[in-house]
Amino acid sequence: MDLKPIELVDTYDRAFPYLRLSITDICNFRCEYCLPDGYKGSGKPNFLSLDEIRRLVTAFAELGVWKIRLTGGEPSVRKDFNEIIDLISHVPGISNTAFTTNGYRLAKNAKSWFEAGMRNLNVSIDSLDRQMFHKITGHDRLPDVLAGIEQALTIGYDSVKVNVVLLKGYNDTALEDYLDYIQKRPVTVRFIELMQTGDNLTYFKKRHLSADVIRDQLLDRGWTQNIRVNGAGPAVNFTHPDYQGAIGLIAPYSKDFCLGCNRLRITATGDLRLCLFGDIGIPLRDLLQHDDQKAELQIRVMKQLDYKKSSHFLAQGETGLIPNLSSTGG
After folding, report:
1. How far apart are CA 174 and CA 127, in angstroms?
2. N or C: which end of the chain has fewer CB within 10 A?
3. Using the 8-state DSSP alphabet, how is residue 68 labeled?
4. Cα–Cα distances in Å, from 296 out to 108, 198, 212, 217?
5. Mean pLDDT, range 290-312, rounded to an integer
6. Do the Cβ atoms of 224 and 240 come closer than 8 Å?
7. 18-327, what's its fold?
8. Torsions phi, psi of 212, nearest 5?
């Protein structure tokens, strides 16, 4: 892969080739840890338009960003989702297009999304037990979501991952189910520690569990930890010769978790977030109105990296501006 030099480097010498772009904060699921009461909008949505997305992604690509992940909410609720994929996949310099989804539309749309240019997807499946999946998400759609993954594998997506938020008492004893699932499927299952947000403190205290629980089980079963590749996310990955798939662990409360930070975030209304749990949102939308604003936009972004902190402060209970994970894209 021929990559441009990264011009987005912070004061800790961390480079940022990866942009997580939220295109909506709307989600149709009611996951207990995120939107237990469902999505509640505040007036008519005013999310980034196609032209604003084009200008944004083009500016970041010229600064060395080569990986874009579309997030939400649920990104596919946007009626112009295919157009957004097509737009991003044709921006010079963007070589990795990905998105994170709850999978409810995947079976019907996996082919059209692939044809539009999508190549990598993460699907949230917090339980492979149908009743527990229903309890966590508020929807009895596990068979539909699993069917969507089979479609994606058949079509030939470059990467298919399953995200599992680790929840004490719900799925902390379900490793065997996921191992059975990936034994003959080239799917990476990623266990993600539950993170405290602005409105889930009670739930967090009840359900949070360290990812070490899964790590210890994997090592006991002969799994091997792999070296992190360039442009990868924060997961620590494990493989086993008897399995086609892999296991990843994302442990934001672990020591030195932020040392390898390589991504920036844009909210659905055009604010730059230097950290998922940062306490400042930097407006960019005023510089996304005309093509001739690109240089000014790039300067504003580069200057803000001087203010990126060495780490989040989740361990101290500081959750920044994020009320729930759907508001910034997780």
Report:
1. 8
2. N
3. E
4. 41, 33, 44, 50
5. 90
6. yes
7. TIM Barrel (3.20.20)
8. -60, -25
